[in-house]
Amino acid sequence: MRQEKEVRISYWAAHLTTIVSVALVLVIIGVIAMVSAAAASETRRIKEKIELSAVLTDSATDSQADSLAKAIAALPFTRSAKAVTKEDAMRQWKADTGEDLETLFGVNPLSPEVSFTVKADYASEAGLRKIKAQVEKMGLVEAVAAPDAEMVDTMNTNIEKAAYVLGGIALVLLVISFVLINNTVHLTIYSRRFTIHTMQLVGATNGFIRRPIVGNNLLSGVLAGLIASAVMAAAMLGAPRMGHGHLGTLVPWWQFGAIAAALVIAGALICSVAAIAATNRYLRKDYDELFK
Questions:
Q1: Are residues 141 and 135 in contact, defined by beta-carbon separation less than 8 angstroms?
Q2: Cα–Cα distance measured from residue 286 to residue 57, given in angstroms and rounded to the nearest whole number
Q3: Contact present, 102 and 108 (Cβ < 8 Å)
Q4: Phi then psi for 281, rounded to 5 degrees?
Q5: What are the structural domains of the chain?
Q6: I need a surface site. Which of 37, 64, 146, 245 has the fewest CB within 10 A?
Q7: pLDDT on residue 8
């Protein structure tokens, strides 16, 4: 009776170790996913801050500029658009250069403008060139001022390089994580190798032996995923108190929910596959090989 109790305690201790170990690994995977999501969100934000300006002809009025802004806003590549009146353009000129052109010339020589930003998918040298050509064909538009194409391409290249580096690190960590989880599950089943052999001797089928082992490890994977998700949720909630309130903006809660669900599924899947592989290994072994 005492020996049976010790075996049971040892069995659940092994599963607890598995749950904690897998949870720690899943936290690492979750952090990688969160960083990737935050990087993608920040990249999109940077691209969508690229601003173009459609300078209108001298004869254009502020109301015409407002109508043109609405027309540009309706285009598929536009993220936002606003009209800039002649007075607003003059105030911006004074703020940027310190010169008062209205006093110098006696009149406001600036034309109204339409300032607009584009969606992230169009923020490339080729995309901006097409947008510039299309807007310049619109009525009352004299010219379109756009960021330097080389600067935009350099920014996109740097973002792509950073994404490749982050993806490479994530891939290496995922492989290491899978190996660690596989070894942890294998050690848990290793402690039951003699029980597996005994069940074979009394006529139990491989499926009957495998089913509870895989089921228990699947449950361990689910619990580990829930624990990892809870840890990351606590980090998300604690981020504003630590001066990182923008984290919730970079990774919205709906996206965090998807990552948390993926962690639970990943924990269950990896633990189940590892349990099947380890159980099959001991099902094929002879009694003498169990001591190795």
A1: yes
A2: 90
A3: yes
A4: -65, -45
A5: 2-45+155-291 (no CATH), 51-146 (3.30.70.3040)
A6: 245
A7: 55
CA 132 to CA 53: how far, in whole Å? Answer: 9
Q: How many residues does the chain have?
A: 292
Helices (DSSP H) in the chain: which residue ranges? 2-47, 62-73, 86-97, 101-105, 125-136, 149-190, 193-201, 206-238, 247-250, 253-283
Model pTM?
0.70
Q: Which residues contact 152 (CB under 8 A, 6 or more apart)?
A: 50, 123, 124, 125, 128
Q: Which residues of 68-86 are buried (b: 16+ CB within 10 A; e: fewer)?
A: bbeebeeeebbbebbbbbb
Helix (H/G/I), strand (E/B), else coil: 239: coil
Instruction: State the Cα–Cα distance between residues 235 and 238, nearest whole angstrom.
Output: 5
Query: How far is it, in rounded angstroms, from Cα 114 to Cα 118?
Result: 13
Residues 6+ apart with CB under 8 A from 34: 232, 251, 256, 259
- As averages over each run of 10 residues, the pLDDT of the chain (292 residues) reads 52 71 84 82 82 86 88 92 80 69 59 88 85 88 78 72 77 76 75 77 81 86 92 80 56 87 90 84 71 62
Query: Cα 202 from chain centroid?
Result: 51
